[in-house]
Amino acid sequence: MEKINNVTVFILRGLSQNPKLEEVCLVVFSFFYSAILLGNLLIILTVSMGNVLQSPMYFFLKYLSFVDICYSSATVPKMIFNLLAKTKTISYMGCMLQLFGVHFFGPTEVFLLVVMAYDRYVAICKPLHYMTIMDQDRCKKMLLGAWLGAFLHSVIETSLMLKVPFCGPNVIDHYFCDVHPMLKLACADTYAAGVVDTANSGTVALGGFITLIISYTLILLSLRKQSAEGRRKALSTCGSHIAVVVMFFGPCTFIYMRPNTTFNGDKMVALFYTIIAPMLNPLIYTLRNKEVKNAMKKLWCKKIFLKTNGK
């Protein structure tokens, strides 16, 4: 495929072309992004500064919150800026960087959710060996594996799009740069590129989803042998993770498991995994987790007490 690229700037159509609706979106998504930053930063600070939340589950939760901030920051600030601008443009290189960010932090979240499911499996099914299996060294290796796997995925996706020629038009029917909407603008046959993208992204999404299903199936089977109190506690612990998984994997699977096709509702579906899930994750993990809530109360009460005494 000969690379002929006459496009230096793309135009993002965004969620709507209605000025009044754009004003509403500006307020709503500015609030959502602020909630993402504040909620996830609160979890990071609570886990990092507290002495109670030191188990592997909270080790991974801290990094999940960090990834949520990075993932939403790859798309939301530009979307908010474009809601204020008359011409919603993004440079060719800026588009490629955004594509890299989306396909780096998105799969990182997928892999972290899989690792967290494995952590819950070990904690519930092999409680006596939990600290031996999930020791600090192994947790760090799992975290490194998640980062490296996501980086490899993102390099493949970005390299794929850098080889695609664009010679006009340059209007992307989305609020961020993604593979399927961009392939529609290519001035060459993109069948092979579409197959590679579906295989690559589909493997991440479907592979992660199948692994999660297996993990939770094994957990549910093991709960039959436990007491009613043990089942209640285990289900409560897993409930938060299941809610996050459903909210994130459902839309991702819908978007990335398809061939190179786009639907009108894709932009609305994408909001769930780029904005809604990162915003709700802190609420889900804190509202359903007494340990996190108690740690937050102790930490911030201590800060207020020290600040008051300092005066």
UniProtKB/TrEMBL annotation:
It is a multi-pass membrane protein. CDD domains: 7tmA_OR4A-like. The chain crosses the membrane at residues 26-47, 96-118, 139-156, 204-223, 235-256, 268-287. Residues 39-285 form the G-protein coupled receptors family 1 profile domain. Pfam families: 7tm_4. One of its GO terms (cellular component) is plasma membrane. The keyword Nuclease does not apply. Belongs to the G-protein coupled receptor 1 family. This is Olfactory receptor. It comes from Orycteropus afer afer.
